[in-house]
Amino acid sequence: xxxxxxxxxxxxxxxxxxxxxxxxxxxxxxxxxxxxxxxxxxxxxxxxxxxxxxxxxxxxxxxxxxxxxxxxxxxxxxxxxxxxxxxxxxxxxxxxxxxxxxxxxxxxxxxxxxxxxxxxxxxxxxxxxxxxxxxxxxxxxxxxxxxxxxxxxxxxxxxxxxxxxxxxxxxxxxxxxxxxxxxxxxxxxxxxxxxxxxxxxxxxxxxxxxxxxxxxxxxxxxxxxxxxxxxxxxxxxxxxxxxxxxxxxxxxxxxxxxxxxxxxxxxxxxxxxxxxxxxxxxxxxxxxxxxxxxxxxxxxxxxxxxxxxxxxxxxxxxxxxxxxxxxxxxxxxxxxxxxxxxxxxxxxxxxxxxxxxxxxxxxxxxxxxxxxxxxxxxxxxxxxxxxxxxxxxxxxxxxxxxxxxxxxxxxxxxxxxxxxxxxxxxxxxxxxxxxxxxxxxxxxxxxxxxxxxxxxxxxxxxxxxxxxxxxxxxxxxxxxxxxxxxxxxxxxxxxxxxxxxxxxxxxxxxxxxxxxxxxxxxxxxxxxxxxxxxxxxxxxxxxxxxxxxxxxxxxxxxxxxxxxxxxxxxxxxxxxxxxxxxxxxxxxxxxxxxxxxxxxxxxxxxxxxxxxxxxxxxxxxxxxxxxxxxxxxxxxxxxxxxxxxxx
Amino acid sequence: xxxxxxxxxxxxxxxxxxxxxxxxxxxxxxxxxxxxxxxxxxxxxxxxxxxxxxxxxxxxxxxxxxxxxxxxxxxxxxxxxxxxxxxxxxxxxxxxxxxxxxxxxxxxxxxxxxxxxxxxxxxxxxxxxxxxxxxxxxxxxxxxxxxxxxxxxxxxxxxxxxxxxxxxxxxxxxxxxxxxxxxxxxxxxxxxxxxxxxxxxxxxxxxxxxxxxxxxxxxxxxxxxxxxxxxxxxxxxxxxxxxxxxxxxxxxxxxxxxxxxxxxxxxxxxxxxxxxxxxxx
Lengths: 647, 281
Fold this sequence. Notes:
The complex is a heterodimer of chains A (647) and B (281). With 647 residues, chain A is α/β, with parallel strands linked by helices. Chain A has 21 helices and 19 strands. Chain A has a domain at 7-233: 3-Layer(aba) Sandwich (Rossmann fold), CATH 3.40.50.280. In chain A, the strands form six sheets. Chain A has a six-stranded mixed β-sheet with strand order 2-1-3-4-5-6. The longest helix of chain A has 21 residues, at 414-434. Chain A is globular and about 70 Å long. Chain B is built from seven helices and eleven strands. Chain B has two domains: 5-111, Pseudouridine synthase I, catalytic domain, N-terminal subdomain (Alpha-Beta Plaits, 2-Layer Sandwich), CATH 3.30.70.580; 114-264. In chain B, 20% of the residues lie in helices and 27% in strands. Mean pLDDT of chain B is 82; it is low at 243-281.
């Protein structure tokens, strides 16, 4: 191996493609790694465009950790856009790394970060462009090992034919362990061939090697090799403070999504929203110490020249000491943004502190249109809290508000759907008291049930049913002053659902769609439902059964051999609670209900504050009996009066 | 009181040539912040740094002659000797600030005063004789038609009025590419649309690829007097410019001849003697 850089071959093609700067690297903070035959070379790939993939923290963190090691070297790669893909194929030039323009096939490991199901066909495309057979079984000794990580690897079965291994959970420690076993295998002359590498990988906790398993007659995935454990448990780093990465966040030359400094303030979330896979599979909560956060912010801003920082986590307003950290940052001329705002006045006050003069837009995610719906999904935002927060936001100078909702949730009735527009309408009404131009954007997505959540047994709404609900919303929104409705394509939601909870039989479907040109399926202009339906038909996959059917508890799930620590009986109990509209408090500040995430791995929450933050949170310290009480200030309206007749 | 205005000259060489004008502009703004240069900001709802970028360079082209003007915060002091290195350290590889100077009050903006740009285009696959013939043809003609597609609309444009000079630079070493040397009037110079070097190449040699384009100078031609808005310091010019090749032909109607760079021993911007071998016409 070791053809070195192929920049001159690539350069000739870049004159003919859109946005050629996607492929040149040169970001501030990028490594200039030195390859060596004894080192394990990783190509960390995000299977979507550079603009989408570059900000991905996982890729940046792992690249730094690997490059700090003596026995590893890591570079990055992003899916080439369709124009460059065509040029590469025409010219016979392979996929290449960003930093040193080295052929992807010269690396030992092609590792993909999978954050979205619709990127799976891009994985096949990238592997093929690397000159590597797309199926594991067809690869030879010199071919790179294909690995996946990220949230989607908690059900990797749709890609089981294509990946050598899937890594579950936090990557910080396990990449080192993988480096060690693959390095030893490589230096020993690849004993046992690829099977030897597979067995060595299967011995690393958190690593699942699909080829060492078979699918039993009842659908269960069971070990087919002595090296394969019956259940693969996810990895969890105990102490976020030990991993202050990325230390050198990349500053791209081009505009990317999330173009600002990101500092992760905690990992994991226990608010218990039942639809949220991230909140289930990343437990427990592990906060970064406030002093380290401040240091990472200060150093990061100075180094990058950014004038905006995002404090990232699944629910940043819940971070202990958020006020102090934010206060220290906003002394300078720096904007702070908080993703996923909690809906209460305290949070809005915090947002007002951090936004300074730039008060562009504020986003809340009530997710459900009625209090009943929100109890089902355990997103315990009381009507009163929402309106108070919205009132606070508009009174403090915001003019645009965005509200996120899901449709197609379990037990959903039409009144729950229509409640979405009603909430938006009332928020706009509150806004108009403060500013004439008040606008509320209501963004609606179709719900996709995810593995390892209480809703994993739920039959997803069909595209037709979702479309019917969208139509209900559109009709209602027409007479809702100041409300703009946005929605996602329900047909794309169906395919997300297919990949989310699908099994090994989907491998040929992915190949067929990819071969028919179905890459970049996240991009509306490239998504075509027909291709998927045709592929399902040709491959004998029953879309109805795999996506839209309620599954009984007795049915083995395709991901049952993979564990995020959550007990199956906890998830089932939470599913039954959901249907009964029973709620569950955040266990950060209330007694443990034994979901399994802490006890199973001998880890626990790392939270600096023993009391919930001001303003209440997720039912903690809140009066849930009054969740659907609309404050008097709104009064009855025409729409509200006719509201009960929605069904 | 008028704020102090600085003019910077910088390069764009190597891989970074694929970076678009707007992205490079953002990068320069960020570099100025990182180097703690006290750039004045506009007032209003969404304040912006007071930076004026000169004529945009086509994505894919290199340059040793990019320019920008910036206003400093009133009363701010900046160490001009250190500024180039400080900024270059905060910029991507290939983008280096090579000169800086205060701009006298009353000087016009770059967009309005720069009348032409001087370019070199390396054409590795070109036959020098073919190039020479094309140059002769272009110089003898009164028009040079080219079909441009802008925003999906095709239109015929005459490139000839903007073509101030055109010459072939023959390879000196075996393996070197033949190069074209051209000077093209900017919008401020012609009042028309800006003509790109790649368009001239395509119009004359449709079978050749785009070539490797490099801007080597920008010029202000005012009342017959010709100067660079900010010349390269001679030491840097020596390092940047390849040894000059003797031009094979020169435009007969161009009023002013000038050097390509200091590599030939003349300070940039000063009138040079007629190059040996220049073909009159």
